[in-house]
Amino acid sequence: VVVHEDFELEPTGTLTIDGGSFINDQAYHSYSNYLSGTFNMSAGLFEVTYNEIRISSAFDDNITGGIIRAGEDFIAEYTGTFQPSGGELQISGQIHLLNGNFVNDLRIISDSYVSYSILDINNNLYIDSGFFNLGNVTVNVSNDVLNFGSIYMQSNANSILNVGNDITWYSGSSEWISLG
To answer: CB-based burial of residue 101 (10 Å sphere; 0-12 exposed, 13-18 middle, 19+ buried)?
Structure first.
């Protein structure tokens, strides 16, 4: 399914994706695409190509697999509203996960950075291209970091990257880490 106009999942709505693609390719606009209601996803792709995704306080996530792709920012600021047990979040912008929200796998597909204080990734962090700027935050990765792009950290910004297993630097990848 491709939606060319504005799309929002209303508080009484249910969206179920068990495979295939749901793509909202509306041209860039200055407001968020809100997701409320019930979101069931076990496989497939949910994409907002040119805009940000904002999780509302009424969002009920049942995400066990699949890919959620945000062309801009991804914001989940209400307590416990985004806590997938599987799947992958792909971003090209800022990621704001507050109040106990987390991702399973995070894939950076273009220049991105973390806002606020803590980002929890319950599985792997993939940096496919561009840079991932940790800013003034702590990023906790339960398993591995696989870097094909760049990681940007500065000691004066209090950047902390905690990794459960390994960091792999692939050919062409780099790091910009300044030590204080």
So the answer is: buried
* Rounded average pLDDT per 10-residue block, the chain, 180 residues: 93 97 90 91 96 95 97 93 97 92 95 84 94 88 94 76 91 66
Q: What is the pLDDT of residue 164?
A: 95
> For residue 178, how many other CB atoms are within 10 A of its CB?
11
CB 56 within 8 Å of CB 34: yes
Strand segments, DSSP code E, in 12-149 are 14-24, 33-35, 38-48, 53-55, 60-63, 67-70, 74-76, 88-91, 94-97, 105-108, 112-114, 118-121, 125-127, 131-133, 138-141, 145-147
Can you give the C-alpha Rg of the chain in angstroms?
Answer: 16
Residues 24-45: tens digit of each pLDDT: 999 888 778 899 999 999 999 9
Would you state the pLDDT for residue 95?
94
Q: Fill in the amino acid letter for 90.
A: Q
